[in-house]
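Q&A FORM
Asked by: J.P.
Topic: structure of dTDP-glucose 4,6-dehydratase

PROVIDED:
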Amino acid sequence: MRLLVTGGCGFIGTNFIRYQLNVHPQTTIVNLDKLTYAGNPQNLTDIQQAHGGTRYFFEKADIADAAAVQAVIEKYSPDAVLNFAAESHVDRSISDPAPFVTTNVLGTQVLMQAARTAGIKRFVHISTDEVYGSLLPHEAPFTESNPLLPNSPYSASKAGADLMVRAFVETYGFPAIITRCSNNYGPYQFPEKLIPLMLGKAWENAPLPVYGDGTNVRDWIHVEDHCRGIDLALRKGRDGAVYNFGGNAERTNLDVVRAILRLTGKPESLISFVKDRPGHDRRYAMDFTLAGDELGYAPVHDFETGLADTLAWYEKHTTWLENVKSGAYLEFMSRWYGDR
Ligand code: NAD
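REPLIED BY: S.T.
REPLY: Here is the structure written out as tokens.
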């Protein structure tokens, strides 16, 4: 199977490429990535060395650039397309929503149009629980039939993309699947996101900034569980289906930050409550019964062990973390892939 993966230099895309190459020896990957600030090709240096030109190919391109996307699809004739590429950070979407609409909504439509023209038989669109909006503490977890009620420019752009995927399925019979997932954690996550951000601060003995009162709840899923779910959707999913994936690990932000302090042996006095994020959703939780029934999906990582393993990974890869934090990876990118 030859897969076109977009956004493969980001956190989840990197883990997905590694998962595919490990688990499916016959699979070949083409990674199409624009290399925004969040795309780090150093994540895949070892993959490039081991499989570059045989099982792994990289193309620097923008999913919103129709000619570039068409050229990549014509060059490699993939069997399936998986769309991970996105602007993904809620805080950035609040200060500047425009790139979120361009990449997440327009980019998804451009990519689907090119895939449809080429007669691609499977398109998996990676989405998020945030499209469902926010839950109250007593409310049941989101199912796939919950209405889309996004509250941030990020989640609105992801919901816009999901609706465009739905429209392609309904209008053209386009063979797409949408996967929606809760908060991921694991190796290679860009340190603007909660867990690597807090870990970096704890190591520096710097204040750990927690929004509001820290009681917002997220369901945490190990990125490897997410990648397995996406792989199951790719290989066993039903055209037109939407599948939720979760980790069975609802935790408040404060729970997560306290766990990081415990694991790093740092005091809770480092916690610093800061002004809440505007429109901050209170709670997300996922009902993934459908993915269990139709795909045989179940998360295998327990959160406390997975978090300890993740911290151990960052501890072993301090150079990776430092390169990202200092921006040294940007120099690497411009040397290897030209100006961005
Ligand atoms: P990320 O920000 O780490 O990576 C995004 C990648 O997309 C980067 O490599 C970036 O260079 C690339 N990219 C951005 N714009 C592009 C464009 N126009 N053309 C081509 N490439 C482009 O994101 P992530 O955390 O890996 O998330 C991947 C996907 O999973 C996203 O669609 C996100 O919405 C979704 N998701 C993420 C989470 C999470 O917890 N991280 C949870 C649910 C769903």
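FOLLOW-UP: The pocket of nicotinamide-adenine-dinucleotide is lined by residues 6-7, 9-13, 33-36, 38-39, 62-64, 84-88, 103, 107, 126, 128, 158, 181, 183-184, 190 (CB under 6 Å).
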